[in-house]
Design a protein that fits this description.
Trefoil (Acidic Fibroblast Growth Factor, subunit A); 11 helices; nine-stranded mixed beta sheet
């Protein structure tokens, strides 16, 4: 996380707490409860966990103990087993300038037009090669700025007013620079970048001349231009490296930026990358990525909480609610307290020692056990991430208790065909560092454990198999019960006419409160009313928050397709056309209240229990 963002992210986090009409989804861990794992609900396959080499790789790469850092981050047996690494292609500032902070002054490879210096950035390159040798198998290249001589301000930290800083006639030059670096790495150093992005929080306006770090603003139309130029340059040079974007600071800005791009650029992008410092509408971004058939990454996140609990809660939301298939922490090593897994001054080549905080071990609770290829599965507990690997037969449960009291959790694995008879336990707390505890007996596919106050605990159960189907059962009939009101989704007055409104009403078992989920592929469903045979529909295909929900004849429209998203025993129903969710207007508890579509805000009035009728 860049220092410019630290204060703004704290202020933004405070403002987001007031945004929801309903109850939040981040469940309290206080009080005993049961957590049910559901392998019939299978979501994204994890690509892995990672970090960025900016800005620590440039400094640590010159340390005498640099290999020790690499081993503890990337070795799967003795370290965290991070398998994703983001490499910063530096812009390289004007040699006459000394504005950039020492650790942030990443050298560029093109110090002047037509001249390449392939001896540049040797330290960061060493760290990349060493990490690859330890097991890193996904590598992404990213840029924070074009070389200084391509910029309007003549520097890599931004324009004077925080606006666009790439000269209008240098878009193709910047694209050529990035692809030439990518090509040289492949042809000369044996590194093939899986993806590349020219953007870093591009819509943000804090990239200003005089800052001590690289940064470059792009208006959305200009983002589209540079992405188009970069894809053309990749194609021209025969590079297999994929395009990723838009790398916005907030989830919501990422969604807006991606949806602003041309059809051609959207098609060219293989992977939607977002930072999750700000924004809240994870459901909308998940819907966008799923509908477009794109991978979705949390490509950057960081915070100053050394305990790792804030990070763990973010991982839960990003993977469970947003559907990220890769999760990348900003800096594994940082000079600021709590921001990295390791703390080091990063301002000279002699001070090579470091301190390790609890966040390092919390990262291990996830990265050492939920390995690439594991499938995220359904879980009724919002405090727990569940994953299943059919190859190894392992189920992994990671539970976060950020409350000040212990709680008792009973884990129900009865929906698996078979499970092993014991659970391995690994816990990180204020006094424990990914400590392996005594195994817990699994009896009748259940076990009970204590979630210690302010801790993260991983449970690994071997010998699991699942022979059932996935998704919602074809032909099954469900009631949809609102979490907030306890009332059922209902066709008003049991109408069988197209255009009739959808309301909530007391559960009476009638056919107008019964619904069939019919798969349309990629996780989307039509929701058909049993009483009328018509579909749940957003009126007039509106994309506006507040639009009414009706029933309508099946016309194949995206406004009649819904993505159920697991939020811990309940689902949010996201519309494929709008990205908005089924919502009880104003969080009403009253029978007869209308249903609308609204941006996901974490409210219980947007969460539904699907109760099977037959």
């Amino acid at each position: 996380m860049k220092w410019l963002k630290r204060m703004s992210s704290l202020l933004l986090a405070g403002s987001l707490l007031t945004g929801s009409l309903g109850l939040g989804t981040e469940a309290s861990a206080a009080g005993a409860y049961t957590a049910v794992a559901d392998p019939s609900k299978q979501y994204q396959t994890m690509e892995g966990w990672g970090t960025s080499l900016a800005w620590w790789g440039k400094v640590v790469g010159e340390y005498s103990n640099r290999d020790e850092y690499v081993e503890k981050m990337f070795n799967a047996n003795t370290g965290l087993g991070l398998n994703i690494l983001r490499y910063n292609i530096g812009g390289g500032d004007n040699p006459s300038s000394n504005i950039l902070e020492y650790r942030k002054a990443v050298p560029g490879y093109q110090p002047s037009p037509g001249v390449y210096d392939w001896n540049a950035d040797a330290n960061q390159r060493y760290m990349l090669q060493a990490a690859k040798a330890q097991g890193v198998n996904i590598i992404e290249a990213f840029a924070n700025s074009a070389p200084y001589w391509m910029t309007i301000s003549g520097g890599v930290s931004g324009a004077a007013n925080g606006g666009n800083n790439l000269k209008p006639d240098y878009y193709d030059d910047f694209a050529d620079y990035l692809t030439e670096v990518v090509k040289h790495f492949r042809d000369n150093w044996g590194i093939t970048f899986d993806s590349v992005t020219p953007l870093n929080e591009p819509i943000s306006t804090w990239w200003k001349q005089g800052n001590d770090q690289e940064g470059m603003h792009f208006e959305r139309a200009d983002q589209n231009t540079i992405l188009s130029q970069l894809q053309a340059s990749l194609n021209a040079k025969g590079l297999s490296t994929k395009l990723s974007a838009p790398e916005e600071y907030s989830i919501d800005d990422t969604n807006v930026s991606f949806n602003s791009y041309s059809t051609a650029v959207k098609s060219a992008i293989s992977q939607i990358n977002t930072h999750t410092y700000g924004g809240s509408n994870r459901t909308a971004l998940r819907n966008t990525a799923t509908s477009a058939g794109k991978h979705l990454w949390t490509s950057e996140y960081g915070d100053g909480d050394a305990s790792g609990l804030t990070m763990s809660r973010t991982i839960l939301k990003d993977i469970r609610n947003m559907g990220a298939s890769a999760w990348v922490y900003w800096q594994a090593v940082d000079s600021a307290e709590g921001w990295g897994f390791f703390k080091n001054v990063l301002n000279n080549t002699q001070t090579t020692s470091y301190t390790v905080n609890q966040k390092y071990y919390v990262m291990g609770n996830y990265s050492k056990f939920i390995r690439p290829g594991y499938k995220i599965i359904g879980m009724s507990d919002a405090n727990t991430l569940a994953a299943y690997d059919t190859v190894s037969g392992k189920v992994v449960l990671v539970t976060t208790n950020s409350e000040s009291t212990d709680t008792t959790v009973t884990y129900d694995l009865s929906r698996f065909t078979n499970t092993g008879t014991s659970a391995q336990v690994y816990r990180t707390s204020s006094t424990e560092k990914l400590q392996q505890l005594t195994n817990i007996s699994v009896q009748n596919k259940t076990f009970t454990a204590t979630a210690k106050a302010n801790s993260v605990t991983t449970y690994v159960i071997s010998g699991a198999t699942y022979n059932g189907g996935t998704g919602y059962e074809a032909g099954a009939i469900y009631k949809l019960i609102n979490r907030n009101s306890g009332l059922a989704l209902d066709v008003n007055a049991a109408s069988t006419t197209g255009g009739a409104t959808i309301i909530q009403w007391n559960d009476n078992g009638a056919a107008n409160q019964q619904w069939k989920l019919e798969s349309t592929g990629n996780g989307y469903y039509k929701i058909r009313n049993v009483g009328s045979g018509l579909l749940l529909d957003v009126n007039s295909s509106s994309t506006q928050g507040g639009a009414s929900l009706i029933q309508w004849q099946d016309n194949g429209g995206n406004n009649q397709q819904w993505l159920p998203i697991d939020v811990g025993g309940y689902v949010v129903l996201a519309n494929r056309n709008s990205g908005l969710t089924v919502d009880i207007n104003q969080g009403s508890l009253t029978a007869g209240a209308s249903t609308i579509q609204w941006a996901d805000n974490g409210g219980a009035n947007q969460q539904w229990s699907l109760v099977k009728v037959n």
